């Protein structure tokens, strides 16, 4: 602010000086032309009378007629240039301000050179007043700017100290801490809002990790306990019974390993580390293969499995992974819809719906079932890893598809929307 105001004041000063110089120059040139024309039209006596009658408020004129000096000045200084060139020179007067500064030059006329000058010391005084006023304005600007800058910096520093204090709390593990957002909605509030959203995501991920840990402990504790008990009992069993017991223990161990293999596979798919074998696929053909493969499972439960095909849709995808994800959804419907249920696959263009008339899923659990190792309480009597729907969502996301769970009143609708 100080620099800008200084530049503006300097520009105004230069404009003022230039304007004053132009006015002095125009006045002197006008008087020069007047006396040059006067010398051509009147005789020497009349010319001298005009010089004596010159108004000193307009210009100070001096002309040497033979040995006499006529006009407002008592002498003509040496080295006075010809107009339009000018020079500043001092004169002494009898008034209170004895020393005056004049600016003038010589005008060449038919009766000889005439000194034409005008006072400029009052203009210099005006410029000095302007300089003092400008210096005062700059000084006040500096003081005001420093004061406002100090207040502004203190306000910023106060918010930064607050943010730093809250950051220390977050670093100590208090992840529910959030940065305050004021009514001003300035840059700090925008930064705080973005940081709070990052904290929301971090807290959600940490809760998800805790949930996964709890689910792993819950799901693997039973088979691991069975393994330990079985191993202890092997010592006291007969060789024939020991082989049968080992088969059961191996089955329990395979279930544990399958859980960890599924988690590793899910991570590779979510992070894009598993390459997709992309090829043109027909959604209608996939649905027909699903019904053919799952028909036997539905017959065992005395369920009706039907297929309704609509407009054809071609997509590019990994046939093995995509079939795995869709079959997992159909298999879940067969498992949990109940004995004698009706399951229907409806395909229309890029939309595929898997409908059943079973017990369905509560609204509050429709998003949670896609999390890792989340199994609703009614499903814990079924053997599984709890990663099926997480795997389904990861595979469909890699194929640019959106999955939603809706109510079928009664039952559940799994809607899959493939994006072009």
From TrEMBL:
SUPFAM superfamilies membership: ATPase domain of HSP90 chaperone/DNA topoisomerase II/histidine kinase (SSF55874), HAMP domain-like (SSF158472), Homodimeric domain of signal transducing histidine kinase (SSF47384)
Predominant cellular place of this UniProt entry's protein: membrane
Residue stretches making up the Histidine kinase domain: 215-420
GO molecular function: phosphorelay sensor kinase activity
PANTHER family: HISTIDINE KINASE (PTHR45436:SF8), SENSOR HISTIDINE KINASE YKOH (PTHR45436)
Enzyme Commission number(s) of this protein: 2.7.13.3
Catalytic activity from the UniProt record: ATP + protein L-histidine = ADP + protein N-phospho-L-histidine
Assigned keywords, A-Z: Kinase, Membrane, Phosphoprotein, Transferase, Transmembrane, Transmembrane helix, Two-component regulatory system
Transmembrane segments: 99-118, 130-152
First and last residue of the signal peptide: none
Name recorded for this polypeptide: histidine kinase
Locations listed in the record: Membrane
GO cellular-component term (any): plasma membrane
Domain HAMP: 154-207
A Pfam family reported for this protein in Swiss-Prot or TrEMBL: HisKA
